[in-house]
């Protein structure tokens, strides 16, 4: 098991997190930390527990056991809204965007500005454009219907909305999935821009280890519900990560074969 060393600069720390679904053990004794402004890559094979861990960190599910510390204070998330109020937000593959609405309307979804008795569309358009321009998100117009944008642009809008909502910690679940090189570059550029600003800490789940090493400061490998590797990106390689995942996969196959033949 990888040794995880906590630091005073950590904005998020989890200790001995486990999660059981009846007899199914999804996570076992997970220890993880995230520093201010850091981008942490969370990798592992399918079923390793990555998405389960993110759901715990964003308040969607409670852990079976373990502790979570936010800026040094122990917290127990009561719901997704509670975690969001404390500065943790998650962006999943479905993005939670409304395709029929314009970009600026999605940016202010469920927190619309109102000039009684009407919505203040002018103000929302102006603020959405300023924020997207500041983050370097390139779209045709804030009036464009989200359904007509590319996958990379839609993902960038979902990330920008979370940052605009004053998220301190972003959890990105497979933001590069099913994207080509051009589309993925939009998200990688956005993450790099956020990292350079240093105001937001990010945990990103991805399967492309080359992209993980390109954008992340540090990598955690989750295998069988445990963190088995915690390394700085510059101290590892895509080949090492691939070899570790393949070795674990082969080990699991051998164990199943032995169990079946017993």
Layout: helices, strands, pairs:
Elements: E1 10-21, E2 24-35, E3 39-43, H1 50-57, E4 65-70, E5 73-75, H2 80-85, E6 88-91, H3 103-107, E7 114-115, E8 118-119, H4 121-135, H5 151-164, E9 169-173, H6 181-197, E10 201-205, H7 209-215, E11 218-223, E12 226-232, H8 238-261
Parallel strand pairs: 3-10, 3-11, 6-9, 9-10
Antiparallel strand pairs: 1-2, 1-4, 4-5, 7-8, 11-12
Helix pairs in contact: 5-6
Structure characterization notes:
- By secondary structure, this protein is of the alpha/beta class.
- Helices cover 37% and strands 26% of the residues.
- The chain has helices at residues 50-57, 80-85, 103-107, 121-135, 151-164, 181-197, 209-215, 238-261, and strands at residues 10-21, 24-35, 39-43, 65-70, 73-75, 88-91, 114-115, 118-119, 169-173, 201-205, 218-223, 226-232.
- The strands form three sheets. The protein has a six-stranded mixed beta sheet, sandwiched between helices. A four-stranded antiparallel beta sheet has the order 2-1-4-5, covered by helices on one side. The protein has a two-stranded antiparallel sheet with strand order 7-8.
- Strand 11 (218-223) and strand 12 form a beta hairpin.
- It starts with 9 loop residues before the first strand and ends with a helix.
- The mean pLDDT is 88.
């Amino acid at each position: 098991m990888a040794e995880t060393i906590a630091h005073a600069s950590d904005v998020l720390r989890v200790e001995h997190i486990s999660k059981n679904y009846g007899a199914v053990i999804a996570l076992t004794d997970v220890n993880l930390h995230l520093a201010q402004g850091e981008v942490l890559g969370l990798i592992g094979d399918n079923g390793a527990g990555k998405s389960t861990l993110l759901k715990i960190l964003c308040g969607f599910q409670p852990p079976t056991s373990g502790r979570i510390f936010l800026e040094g204070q122990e917290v127990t998330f009561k719901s997704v809204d509670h975690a969001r109020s404390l500065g943790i937000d998650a962006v999943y593959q479905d993005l939670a965007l409304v395709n029929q609405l314009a970009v600026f309307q999605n940016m202010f979804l469920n927190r619309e500005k109102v000039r009684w008795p009407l919505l203040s569309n002018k103000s929302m358009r102006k603020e959405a454009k300023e924020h997207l321009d500041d983050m370097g998100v390139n779209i045709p117009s804030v009036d464009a219907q989200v359904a007509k944008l590319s996958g990379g642009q839609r993902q960038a809008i979902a990330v920008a909305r979370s940052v605009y909502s004053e998220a301190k910690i972003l959890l990105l679940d497979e933001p590069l999935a099913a994207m080509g090189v051009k589309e993925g570059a939009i998200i990688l550029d956005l993450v790099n821009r956020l990292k350079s600003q240093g105001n937001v800490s990010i945990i990103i789940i991805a399967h492309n280890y080359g992209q993980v090493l390109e954008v992340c400061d540090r990598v955690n490998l989750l295998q069988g519900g445990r963190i088995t590797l915690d390394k700085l990106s510059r101290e590892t390689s895509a080949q090492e990560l691939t070899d570790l995942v393949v070795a674990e996969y082969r080990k699991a196959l051998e164990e199943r074969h032995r169990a079946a033949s017993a």
